[in-house]
Amino acid sequence: MEKIAAFEKVSFAQFEKAWKKNFPETEDVQAVYDAIKMPKRATTGSAGYDFFAPADIKIEKGKSVLIPTGIRSKINDGWVLKIYPRSGLGFKHRIQLDNTVGIIDADYYNSSNEGHIMIKLSCDAHDDGHTVALGSGDGFAQGIFLPFGITFDDETDGIRDGGFGSTTKK
After folding, report:
1. pLDDT tens for each residue of 97-116
2. Where in the chain does DSSP place strands (E)?
3. What is the pTM of this model?
4. Three-class SS of residue 20?
5. Sheet of 118-123, strands arranged across
């Protein structure tokens, strides 16, 4: 297998900013940051790198939660990291990504937010009152690195700064 990427933590300042925005009730953000687990594959045959919840998180039926992972990925050119929900969460709780598949481009690493990977999940369960509880350290998403191609006449020269739709903002 070809080694084409590396996971790193974003800085504490970047993580704290994103975490407080989404979980303002958190008293000890440093403890959450310190507990971040790096993504990893479960077995030698696994394609996906599991992403782990940095803290206890609840997702209620009909609601969405944006999870700052504290993780960034340095990816070789010609590769992309695609993010999907863990299949067990989808089957058991109808957990899905709000953007269906997260696309982490290689140049996202250099964005002003340090390439901070954030994953927004929704619970579309059928049962009223259904809540999914992710414990700190529980796997909730998986990332798969894939090569991609470009067209022969590609003349792109744009520079990214940001995520979630940043490549189409002028």
Report:
1. 999 999 999 999 999 999 99
2. 5-9, 49-52, 57-60, 64-68, 71-75, 79-85, 95-97, 102-105, 118-123, 131-134, 139-147
3. 0.90
4. helix
5. 64-68, 118-123, 95-97
Whose tokens are 């899905």? That residue is: 96
pLDDT single digits (tens) 124-140 = 888 888 899 999 999 99
Burial level of 28, CB count in 10 A (0-12/13-18/19+)? Answer: exposed
User: Do the beta carbons of residue 110 and residue 85 sit within 8 Å?
Assistant: no
The pair of structure tokens assigned to 98 is 């709000």
Edge-first strand listing for the sheet containing 49-52: 49-52, 139-147, 79-85, 102-105
Give CA–CA dist 108/86, Å, rounded: 23
Q: Which tokens is 148 given?
A: 């991609």
Alpha-carbon Rg for the chain, nearest whole angstrom, is 16
d(CA 20, CA 36): 15
